[in-house]
Write a structure and sequence with these properties.
The structure is a homodimer of 112-residue chains. The first copy, chain A, has one domain: Orthogonal Bundle (Arc Repressor Mutant, subunit A). In chain A, helix 2 crosses helix 5. The longest helix of chain A has 29 residues. Chain A has a three-stranded antiparallel beta sheet. By secondary structure, chain A is α+β, with helices and mostly antiparallel strands. At the A-B interface, helix 1, helix 2 and helix 5 of A face helix 1, helix 2 and helix 5 of B. The structure holds a DNA duplex (30 and 30 nucleotides).
Chain lengths: 112, 112
DNA sequence: AGAAGTACGCACCTTGAGGTAAGCTATCGC
DNA sequence: GCGATAGCTTACCTCAAGGTGCGTACTTCT
């Protein structure tokens, strides 16, 4: 999907914030507890390092998560969810519930 | 965004159903009242006929809207929302509310 | 000495949603 | 006959998200 125009509607903005392929998963994992970069890689099998970095940075810019760098060696970076990110997770959960409802509906229709 | 894998999470299914560029707008318009094809074209400036047809067909396949053909000449087709589509519109509204909240948050941050 | 882990950046390529333009069937108005 | 309208279908093109792979600076493990 293309996301460019403001669309006047707030949904476009929400989609802009969560539209990435891995963002919902990241949001879900981080809402449980903070994680380090390499831990997130392991949690999301199939994500490339480039894209993981990208999406984390975008979510940080959107204020959904915060990034904390510890000046140690070897380097350590921890990502954690913000209150705003937590509220988005709630909204996503509503959509997710509808999705499950929809899947039920579909399997019922296919059975008919 | 790519939408392929089931993802175990229902959110992917919901996104699959609503992910198209015009689907939320269509859902919104049709939740007000039924419309004909050409009316929807006029309501969504910029949509091409091909894509409008595509998205309407997909939404019909997902059970979000129903398509009624009147065997007249010139041909007449009316699209209306289903109860399932209506429930999705509610879920979308929650996300939309978050989007507005997020925009407020962003403009506050930029002001700082 | 060499391998491996950490948290990336950069260059290139693939893929599919969406856009563009044309055609198609049939009727009505001029 | 000529164009307009309604509701599509088909073929082709574009463009950005995401994937692949390599490079990096530093350290610890073996």
């Amino acid at each position: 999907m293309r996301r460019k125009e403001p669309d006047s509607c707030g949904f476009a903005a929400a989609l802009q914030a969560i539209g990435g392929k891995w963002k919902t998963s990241l949001l879900w994992e981080l809402h449980l507890r903070p994680y380090r970069f390499a831990e997130l890689r392991r949690l999301l099998p199939g994500v490339s390092e480039k894209v993981l970095t990208q999406q984390l940075r975008q979510m940080e810019a959107d204020g959904l998560i915060s990034r904390r760098v510890y000046d140690e060696v070897p380097p350590r970076v921890e990502y954690s969810i913000t209150p705003l990110g937590f509220s988005l997770n709630d909204a996503v959960t509503v959509m997710s519930a509808w999705g499950k409802h929809h899947e039920t509906w579909k399997s019922q229709r296919e059975a008919a």
